[in-house]
């Protein structure tokens, strides 16, 4: 360690020399890499989609949530399994008459850029008052470019 310090050998240098290790992955693996490894289909519905259409999209894409977006794929919110359960608890069978926009979380946690370090994105999903298991990945225009699950980060060795 003393020799490393004298030579100015830091964690980034270690990651370059040992990219397959846990520290190396934490310092080099980006969200874009996670997206490429898993290639999840993006579940997406319009704000006017019925609860049944939103549930069908969630089930068809097997991600546990669907993005609610406008025609340009700009995220307006997210509709998760949790949100649908909450709607049924609050409205009972009448929840089926609601639209995605009425049920969605209008301020979802999002991964703000595909080039963000995957470890930072994982921490973002785990931190806060409520951990999340799925998050949309957006570009600088708030357009959804993918979805990541906490399982994807674990599978990548983070």
TL;DR?
With 158 residues, this protein is of the alpha+beta class. 44% of the residues lie in helices and 15% in strands.
Model description:
- The protein is of the alpha+beta class.
- The protein has one domain: CBS-domain.
- 44% of the residues lie in helices and 15% in strands.
- The protein has a three-stranded mixed beta sheet with strand order 1-2-3. The protein has a two-stranded antiparallel sheet with strand order 4-5.
- Strand 2 and strand 3 (75-80) form a beta hairpin.
- The longest helix has 11 residues, at 51-61.
- The radius of gyration is 19 Å and the shape is elongated.
- The mean pLDDT is 84.
Shape: elongated
Report strand order across the widest sheet: 1-2-3
Largest sheet: 3 strands, mixed
Number of domains: 1
The CATH superfamily title: CBS-domain
Total strands: the figure is 5
Supply Rg: 19 Å
Compile the SSE list and pairings.
Elements: H1 2-7, H2 11-17, H3 22-28, H4 31-38, E1 44-45, H5 51-61, E2 65-69, E3 75-80, H6 81-91, H7 100-103, H8 118-126, E4 134-138, E5 144-149, H9 150-155
Parallel strand pairs: 1-2
Antiparallel strand pairs: 2-3, 4-5
Helix pairs in contact: 2-3
